[in-house]
Amino acid sequence: MTVPLPPRDEPAAGAQAARGVWPALARALWSMRFAVLLAVLGSAVASLVVFYLASTDTIYMVGHLRSYADPTIDAATRKALHAETVVHVVEVVDGYLLGTVLLIFAVGLFELFVVPRGEVAPREGVGVLRMRDLDDLKNRLGKVMLLIMIVTFFEEVETADARTPLDLLWLAVAIALIGATLWLTHSDARGH
Fold first, then answer.
1. Is residue 2 situated within a structural domain?
2. What is the DSSP secondary-structure string of 87-154?
3. Which residue among 67, 71, 96, 116 sits deepest, i.e. has the most Cβ atoms within 10 Å of its Cβ?
4. Confidence label for 125 from pLDDT (cuts 50, 70 and 90)
């Protein structure tokens, strides 16, 4: 015994239901892109917090420098204050770079997932905030993170105690590798 098939000009009930479900599912999935707003807002707030911390550190650092100009302090104290200030400057730069990474991440996600193209950064504005795709965002973040690692390395170098010629050689090799990395990322940006 065979089961009769429905006529060809009448679509099956399942196909009609699918026609109504697929557009609704597509709209629901497309609307879920707004969940990225959680990451955007979180990154923007974190960026502001890091900028606040770095700015506060800068104010305290400038306050400590008043004692540097004191003519009554001895040379050893002045040298220690100088070294401490340089470390603080590097830490402040590191903080501002981290805040910048978070800001670029927030703006990039917002531009890629939430708003139509080109509505975040003004047409004549800064090109660093214009993201074409996720790879563009990843490349920009990678370069700023490389700068953070370089700043952190130089912070460690400032406090390092090179006692032997081999220590100085390793330091020179590390600095040369950083220079080569910067050269490679710069030549990559020019398309060479």
1. no
2. HHHHHHHHHHHHHHHHHHHHHHHIIIIIS-TTSSS-TTS-GGG--SSHHHHHHHHHHHHHHHHHHHHH
3. 96
4. very low
